[in-house]
Design brief:
Blueprint lengths: L9 E5 L5 H15 L6 E3 L3 H9 L4 E6 L1 H11 L6 E5 L9 E2 L3 H9 L3 E15 L2 E8 L2 E6 L6 E7 L2 E8 L1 E5 L7 H4 L11 E7 L9 E4 L4 E6 L3 E5 L5 E3 L4 E16 L4 H12 L7
Parallel strand pairs: 1-2, 1-3, 3-4, 4-5
Antiparallel strand pairs: 6-7, 6-17, 8-11, 8-15, 9-10, 9-14, 11-12, 12-13, 14-17, 15-16
């Protein structure tokens, strides 16, 4: 566990896909004002606010919404080293420790020095065609190469550090972080990894007469997924898919940035959280 964390420059963001997030975020801003902290409040997608986050104007971002909002906040905050405090208004909240009716008590703990920072590894996905990079992006949960709108499985090969690992005939292949092990990878039958692990998890989706086991790789591994055939797509953390062509390569490595989350209590919070969700028998994956 890291040293106690007490922020001084806070910004409150609301996930625009949840209208109720704005009223809750405004209540937080009013609460912080009573504490002598003038925290701006706006949509997570407000461009001026995003520029201020990237410029280093804040030392903590409060993300009000659900797991989807926290994912988007992670993409914004990780490159500039800004920790995220999530408040859950959604259904599951695998990434979030605080529920809607609990934030006042947790804010008191925050200013009493009872919070700590948890670091979570991210992935970097690079799309390569004929040796040329077509772009890259970071993932907090997962990188997915999968079939597009057709119902036919796709043919893929996966190599690790230049050596072929396996060939797949499947609906797709997930490259996941430990954070993403409770997301799409879990729905596809993968194992649950402790969030502090820095591993790359490979999980096939509905494999047909091919390798059906998940593989856990070390942080330093370089994974290459090559498409054999048409009608496949690349999606990073559930973002709109990018069409792939035959022989396109998706290179997955550990990102050079880390997502930081504000946590309370002992690290066992993760297992209490996951157990509660399992008992609800309502597993889904964060978007």
């Amino acid at each position: 566990m890291s040293m106690p964390f007490i922020p001084k420059r806070i910004v409150v963001t609301a996930y625009p896909k949840m209208p109720q997030a704005f009223s809750e975020a405004e209540a937080m801003t009013a609460y912080l004002k009573e504490k002598g902290i003038d925290a701006p409040c706006d949509s997570l997608y407000n461009e001026d606010l995003r520029k201020r986050v990237k410029k280093g104007d804040f030392d903590m971002l409060i993300a009000v919404g659900g797991d989807g909002g926290v994912l988007r906040a992670g993409h914004l905050c990780a490159p500039c080293g800004v920790p995220i405090l999530g408040v859950n208004l959604g259904r599951l909240g695998f990434l979030i420790q605080i529920e809607r009716n609990e934030w006042r008590g947790y804010f008191e703990k925050l200013f009493n020095g009872e919070a700590w920072i948890e670091n979570r590894m991210m992935l970097r996905a690079e799309h390569i065609r004929a040796g040329e990079s077509l772009g890259s992006s970071n993932a907090l949960n997962e990188v997915v190469v999968a079939r597009g709108q057709t119902l036919r499985p796709v043919r893929l090969t996966a190599s690790v550090d230049g050596r072929q690992l396996a060939s797949y005939v499947a609906d797709g292949l997930i490259a996941s972080t430990a954070t993403g092990s409770t997301a799409y990878a879990l729905a596809a039958g993968g194992p649950i990894l402790p969030p502090e692990l820095r591993n790359i998890l490979l999980v096939p989706i509905a494999p047909h007469l091919s390798v059906d086991r998940a593989v856990v790789l070390s942080e330093g591994s370089s994974v290459s997924i090559v498409v054999k055939g048409e009608n496949s797509v690349l999606s990073v953390d559930g973002q709109p898919p990018t069409p792939l062509m035959e022989d396109d390569q998706v290179k997955v490595t550990a990102a050079d940035v880390t997502a930081q989350f504000v946590r309370f209590g002992d690290p066992g919070y993760f297992y209490r959280n996951i157990t509660a969700h399992m008992n609800e028998n309502s597993l889904g994956f964060p978007r």
